[in-house]
């Protein structure tokens, strides 16, 4: 059974940092691209970062502030978020797959809340 479990969310002030983790099980982690997506209140879920092989992709809204990386030995993908802004407030999900479209991901975690407020 494929499982993705996120952790690391919380509340932070603007300009602060958080590091999200997603631990995977039930499949050969190193063989799959992994992504982070987020869903803000009242908005559609959007993919913000992808790691696929040696390549990474970032949405324009997070480019230069967020970094996605993985540790295949630990079956874990991370999202380092720096210089957080109010508009980064959302539930963050990790997902298996690549591509900017949600349909290109077949498994999702339960999500972790990130709240940026002063």
Topology of this structure?
Layout: E1 3-7, E2 10-12, E3 18-25, E4 34-39, E5 46-52, E6 55-58, E7 66-71, E8 76-81, E9 90-97, E10 105-108, E11 112-116
Parallel strand pairs: 2-11
Antiparallel strand pairs: 1-3, 3-8, 4-5, 4-9, 5-6, 7-8, 9-10, 9-11
Please characterize this protein's 3D structure.
The structure is a single chain. With 118 residues, this protein is an all-beta fold. It is built from no helices and 11 strands. It has strands at residues 3-7, 10-12, 18-25, 34-39, 46-52, 55-58, 66-71, 76-81, 90-97, 105-108, 112-116. Strands 2, 4, 5, 6, 9, 10 and 11 form a 7-stranded mixed sheet that branches. It is globular. The mean pLDDT is 96.
Which short descriptors sum up this protein?
single chain, 118 residues, seven-stranded mixed β-sheet, four-stranded antiparallel β-sheet, 11 strands
Write a concise synopsis of the structure shown.
This protein has 118 residues and is an all-beta fold. The protein has no helices and 11 strands.
Strand content: over 45%
- Classify the oligomer: single chain
Average pLDDT over all residues:
96
What is the H/E string? EEEEEEEEEEE
The overall strand count is 11
What's the number of helices? 0
Low-confidence stretches: none
Percent of residues in helical segments?
under 10%
Major sheet summary line: 7 strands, mixed
The assigned structural class equals mainly beta
**Span from first to last CA?**
40 Å
